[in-house]
Amino acid sequence: MQSGISRRAVLAALPLAMSLPSLAATSTVPPVTHRRVEVNGITLHVAEQGTGPLVILCHGWPECWHSWHHQMAALAAAGYRAVAPDQRGFGDSDAPTEIEQYTIAHTVGDMVGLVGALGETQAVIVGHDWGAPVAWAAAQLRPDIFRAVAAMSVPFVWRGPKPPLQELKEAGVTRYYWQYFQTPGVTEAELEADPDLSLRAILYGRDLTLMLKPDCGFLGENLPLKPRPAWLSEEDVSTVAAAYRQSGFRGGLNWYRNIDRNWGLAGAWDGLQIRQPALFISGTDDILYRSSPRVRAAIDKLPETVPGLRRTMLIDGAGHWIQRERPAEVSEALIAFLREAG
User: Where are the alpha helices (DSSP H) in the chain?
Assistant: First the structure.
């Protein structure tokens, strides 16, 4: 495991100036295009940039395709076809009514269908936050399609002995954020009261915790927001807020409402190893890395649990929204991995 990697160190270790197009040379990069694609019984909105080998970028919660816009431009400049869908239930993609329509089988099926709908037979799949489990499972289940995998923030973990929510309950835990998200309508009411405020609070404005404070919702105490950081522009915030004003938060929250159902489904592929080339990236200030010993232990075990792992990259001081916070470092590491994976 590599820890405390700065941009200077990445650039020193990789002779990118000799092997990659300049990430700043955007004048020759084609613009992002948008379309709607029929896959797996639903319609997904996808953003696309560049031509070349296909790279699918899976966002997390609460985000949309736009979380990858830095990487899309870099990938297109490097000769790749970058495609970032609004995942099922998010943004301009369909949001089925039934909670049971948001399992890992559905979300991986969406990505399998997307590869075919784009006229391709193979892709590299990349995921952040909730997109990471989708990417890991896609690589497990369909190595014939997903020839390499990269994940950010959420490491691969083996299936536990019991459903995760059951484990929390038996351990006496009642205020973990997963639990708060379970009852339909509760978190939706909190977040949809002011989507712009909610997203600003989550992305940068408040020091949120995974274990909720007594008598508080997910957004915590009603305190003034901290200043917007330089890595997040007003356009970034307004783009995501517009997506959630349109879609609401229900679809994304339904992913959490399938956590135990996913555990049950995963029994069918328990023990399958990921032997394709794999990359993992996280930040030392990611709330998951800081707050969860289980996450840190899972990262340490990646060479064992993911035999195809090529690199674990921990970026010193980077937080959860790593592809936004450290776009150059993430893009450079991702492109170097793609070149190595072939």
Answer: 7-13, 16-19, 69-77, 104-117, 131-141, 164-170, 177-180, 186-192, 195-200, 234-247, 250-256, 259-266, 287-291, 293-300, 302-305, 322-325, 327-341
